[in-house]
Amino acid sequence: MTGLWCPGCGLTRGFHQLFTGHPISALQYNVFVPLVLFALVIGWWSWMRSGWGRQRVQLPAWAMRPLAVYLPIAVVFYGVLRNIPAVPFSSLAP
Fold first, then answer.
1. Which DSSP symbol is given to 2?
2. pLDDT value, residue 87
């Protein structure tokens, strides 16, 4: 709606490229494709384990704070960088 690239723009196209065997092309659409894929797999596996009556998959305590602090900063920073119209940053747009 705004004409700006959000940090999630290109994830669907990136996943399509990844699932059709083009991992480098997937990263060109969005660099967060591997991270989102990892989160989806861990979430699905945790959901399956709880369905089987086992304990859910939990991240270690030492990883919770950095994820809660640095991941949102990285996502916002990436969203700002991919909207800068200069040459090295314009390649981040899908």
1. -
2. 87
pLDDT digits (tens, 9 = 90+) for 21-64: 999 999 999 999 999 999 999 999 999 999 999 988 888 889 89
37 sits in the region (left: phi over 0; alpha: psi -120 to 50; else beta) called alpha
Angle (deg, nearest 10), helices 11-19 and 33-51: 80
Of residues 60, 52, 57, 18, the one with CA closest to residue 35: 18
CA distance readout (Å), 38 to 32, 35, 80, 93? 10, 5, 24, 22
Specify whether the CB–CB gap between 94 and 5 falls below 8 A: yes
Chain-centre distance of CA 5, in angstroms? 14
pTM: 0.78
